[in-house]
Hints:
By secondary structure, this protein is of the alpha/beta class. It has helices at residues 15-25, 36-51, 67-78, 93-106, 123-128, 135-148, 161-168, 195-201, 210-213, 218-228; strands at 6-9, 31-34, 57-63, 84-88, 111-115, 153-155, 173-176, 205-208. The chain has an 8-stranded parallel β-barrel with strand order 1-2-3-4-5-6-7-8, surrounded by 6 helices. The longest helix is centred in the N-terminal third of the chain and has 16 residues, at 36-51. The structure holds cytidine-5'-monophosphate.
Amino acid sequence: MNKNPIYCAIDTSSIDNALKLIDEISPHIGGVKLGLEFFTSCGVEGVEKVAKCKLPLFLDLKLYDIPNTVRKSLKNILSLEPTYTTLHVSGGSDMIRECVNLKKQLNSFTKLIGVTMLTSFEDNSMNEVGISGSVSENVKKLSHLALDTGMDGIVCSPMEIKDVKNMFGSKLEVVVPGIRNQTDNNDDQKRTLSAKKAIEFGADVIVVGRPITSADSPRDAAKIFHQSIK
Ligand code: C5P
């Protein structure tokens, strides 16, 4: 494997912590994922500072709103030139098509990745939000929609990688959070797997957050993750 597929989720509210962490682990990761916690405290200015670290950036803001609002927000995101950014596939085909068209118009290289079901969800949590069927059925359905509407990839848990890869092969990039090695705490993730297995199953990108960022030595933890998939 040439490219390191590990994107570390830098989920912190402090720009200083983020930059310190990135500096420490950068030799062992392939990119940095910034999400809602970072963005709602450090904003666009924070993203620009992280971008100066020259690692590929995954801006994970999981857009979900009416098509016009999402389109305008995505335009702002694309100007930051992340390698990846996310939308909820459940926002529907009109919302997604607006985004895919915008990307084409702007000739943007940013890959649009569709969130299928959150990895903190399990079959029991589906009912309470009015979704019928199992997590895996819904992941397959939403992956179909992502492909049909022209998205570049999807996010799913390690449990669904094989199904999605069997169905779509290289037509959809598969981005996988919920990565935990045996000794790691699962935190709020319900559907987890080791980095090695996730890559074996066909994940293109794996997202690892707390097992690296909360470790006594984030650098050693990142190194161990990287070595485990070499
Ligand atoms: O700390 P941990 O490894 O659980 O972090 C996982 C990261 O992946 C978090 O930033 C979370 O927001 C993100 N994520 C997820 N499940 C999804 C999409 C993104 O856990 N379906």
